[in-house]
Design a protein that fits this description.
Elements (H helix, E strand, L loop, with lengths): L11 H14 L6 H13 L5 H12 L6 H11 L10 H4 L24 H21 L2 H15 L13 H8 L5 H9 L6 H34 L1 H8 L14 H27 L8 H8 L20 E7 L5 H13 L6 E7 L3 E3 L10 H11 L11 H11 L8 E6 L11 H10 L2 E6 L13 H4 L4 E4 L3 H8 L3
Parallel strand pairs: 1-2, 1-4, 4-5, 5-6
Antiparallel strand pairs: 2-3
Helix pairs in contact: 1-4, 2-3, 4-11, 6-7, 7-10, 9-10, 10-11, 12-14, 16-17
Length: 484
C-alpha cells in the first residue's frame, strides 16, 4: 500500500495540529481531549499504512457518519499519497529493477509525452484499456495510483500565469468510464448470463468501482491544487458544508436526503428535552389548608408548604407555513420537524399559504412521507387565490376568518416564512391579534438577519409584533426548539 506523504517526524505534531484545525473549521466539533487522542493515534498506528492512519484518526475525531465525506476530503489534502514509492519489500512490487515505477502490477504504464492530437488519442485509448482492467480487478490501491497517472497525462490544462492547472473533468471526458459498464458487466458475469440477483450484484459492484475511481481523480486534482495554492485555500472550496450547516434556502436536490437524515434524530432529541422540561415544571397552586394543618406540628410556622397537583396539559401547536417557491426547502424541513413533535402536543394543526391559506393537517398523518405530503399540498391545497405570489396580508386575513378558533390561550403559534410581501399589505393588525390570543408565538425566518427589512421584506416590521428568530439551517433550528 502506498504511504502517505507526511512531514518529517519533527514536524509531525504541527502537521497534525493543522489537520485538526481544518477539521474543526469544516464544522466538525473537535475538543481538546479528541485532539490529544489523535496525537496518541500517531504513536500506535503504522504511519506508512495510509488507510490505517485514516481510519484511526476518524475513530477519535468523528461523532457521526455524515461527517465522514468532509473528513475524507481534508485527510486526502493533509495526508496525500507519497510522490515516491515506498522502499523495502513493499516497494518491490511497485518498482522495476531500475528503481522507477513499474507496470508489472497492471497499475502503471509507460506513456509518451506526445503533444499532437494523434498521440493524445493514443494515450487516452491505452489508458482506457488499462482502466477497464483495473476496474475488473477491483484493486483500490492500484486504481488510486492509476488515477494519479491519469490526472498527470490527461487532466493537464494549458499553463496559466498562476501555474499548471489540472481538472478532473478532462480525465473523465478522455476516458469515459461510464461507457465501460457493459464490458465490465460481461466480464463479471462471465458465462452466467444476464438477469436475476447476479446481475444486480454485478451492477452494484460496477457502480461502486466507478465511484471510487471518480473520487480518486478528484482527490488527486485537489492534491495538485493544494501544492500550487496551499491546503488551507483549497480546503475552503473543496469541503462541502455539513448537513446541519446547509442553508435551507440554498439546499440542492442532492442535499435533501442528507438533510432529512439530520433532522430526524434532531426531532427525537428535542422531543426528549421537551418532555423532561414539562416534568420538571413548577408545582401547582398552594394548598392553604394542608399547609396550615402541617404547620401545627411546628408551632404554627409553615416550614413545609403543600401544593395542589399540577394539571399537565399538552400544549396545542399551530403552524402557519409559507410554501411559496422562495422558501420551499425551508418549509419542507420545518414541517418534517412539526410532524415529529406531534406526540408532544394535544393537537397539531398545519396551515400552508402563498397568497391564500388552507389547512394541510390531513397531509401529515403519523407515518406519512413529508416529501409526498408537500407534493400533495402543491396539487390539492387551496393556497393560491390570485397570481401565486406571496401575499402575507391576505393569507393572514383568510386564516383569521376561516379558522377563528384555531389560536387560543393554550396554543403555541409558529409562523414559518421569509416575510417578503411583494410590496403588498403585510397584515400587521391581524398578526397582532393572533399573537395576543396565543399562549406563545414565534416566527422562524430563513433569511439572514441583515436582510430583514431590505427590498420587499417586512420582517423588521413583523419583528415588532412577534418574536422573530433567524433560522437558516438545522443548527439554528435546534437552538430555537430547545427554547420552546
Amino acid at each position: 500500500m502506498s504511504a502517505p506523504s507526511a512531514p518529517a517526524p519533527g514536524g509531525l505534531a504541527g502537521h497534525l495540529d493543522g489537520f485538526v484545525r481544518a477539521v474543526r473549521e469544516a464544522g466538525i466539533p473537535v475538543g481538546i481531549s479528541q485532539a490529544v487522542d489523535a496525537a496518541e493515534i500517531l504513536t500506535v498506528v503504522d504511519l506508512l499504512e495510509r488507510e490505517q492512519l485514516r481510519h484511526g484518526l476518524a475513530a477519535v475525531l468523528l461523532q457521526r457518519a455524515s461527517q465522514r465525506p468532509a473528513y475524507d476530503t481534508l485527510f486526502d489534502l493533509w495526508w496525500p499519497l507519497s510522490d515516491r514509492p515506498r522502499t523495502g519489500s513493499a516497494a518491490a512490487s511497485e518498482e522495476g529493477e531500475d528503481g522507477e515505477p513499474g507496470a508489472d502490477d497492471g497499475s502503471t504504464m509507460d506513456l509518451p509525452d506526445g503533444h499532437g492530437d494523434g498521440d493524445s488519442r493514443d494515450i487516452a485509448q491505452r489508458m482506457r484499456e488499462q482502466l477497464a482492467r483495473l476496474l475488473m480487478d477491483g484493486d483500490d490501491e492500484a486504481l488510486r495510483r492509476f488515477a494519479r497517472q491519469a490526472v498527470e497525462q490527461l487532466g493537464r490544462a494549458p499553463a496559466s500565469p498562476s501555474g499548471q492547472a489540472y481538472f478532473g473533468y478532462r480525465v473523465m471526458r478522455a476516458l469515459s468510464p461510464d461507457t465501460l459498464v457493459s464490458q465490465l458487466l460481461a466480464g463479471l458475469l462471465g458465462d452466467g448470463g444476464r438477469g436475476g440477483l447476479a446481475e444486480q450484484v454485478a451492477r452494484q459492484t460496477v457502480r461502486e468501482r466507478l465511484a471510487a475511481f471518480r473520487s480518486a481523480v478528484d482527490a488527486e486534482v485537489r492534491r495538485r491544487a493544494a501544492t500550487e495554492r496551499g491546503r488551507e485555500r483549497v480546503a475552503k472550496s473543496a469541503v462541502r458544508p455539513l448537513a446541519e450547516q446547509v442553508d435551507f434556502l440554498r439546499a440542492q436536490q442532492s442535499d435533501l436526503a442528507e438533510l432529512r437524515r439530520a433532522v430526524a434524530p434532531l426531532a427525537r432529541r428535542l422531543a426528549v428535552r421537551l418532555s423532561a422540561r414539562r416534568r420538571m415544571g413548577r408545582q401547582g397552586r398552594l394548598d392553604f389548608r394542608k399547609t396550615v394543618r402541617a404547620s401545627l406540628g411546628t408551632g404554627g410556622v409553615p416550614v413545609v408548604t403543600h401544593h395542589r397537583p399540577r394539571k399537565v396539559h399538552k400544549p396545542e401547536l399551530v403552524v402557519l407555513c409559507d410554501v411559496s417557491g422562495s422558501v420551499a426547502g425551508f418549509s419542507h424541513f420545518t414541517l418534517m420537524l412539526t410532524q415529529a413533535l406531534r406526540e408532544h402536543f394535544s393537537g397539531v394543526r398545519a396551515f400552508a399559504f402563498v397568497d391564500a391559506t388552507d389547512e394541510v393537517t390531513r397531509f401529515f398523518r403519523p407515518g406519512a412521507d413529508v416529501s409526498a405530503a408537500i407534493a400533495r399540498i402543491g396539487r390539492e391545497a387551496d393556497v393560491v387565490a390570485f397570481d401565486g405570489h406571496s401575499d402575507y396580508g391576505n393569507a393572514l386575513e383568510v386564516f383569521a376568518d376561516r379558522w377563528p378558533a384555531a389560536v387560543g390561550p393554550k396554543t403555541s403559534l409558529l409562523v414559518l416564512g421569509d416575510g417578503r410581501t411583494n410590496y403588498r399589505q403585510p397584515g400587521l393588525p391581524v398578526l397582532g391579534d393572533l399573537v395576543r390570543k396565543a399562549r406563545s408565538a414565534h416566527w422562524l425566518n430563513p433569511e439572514p438577519r441583515r436582510l430583514w427589512g431590505s427590498g420587499d421584506s417586512a420582517a423588521d416590521r413583523y419583528g415588532e409584533v412577534i418574536d422573530m428568530v433567524e433560522c437558516r439551517n438545522a443548527t439554528q433550528l435546534a437552538d430555537f426548539v430547545t427554547t420552546l
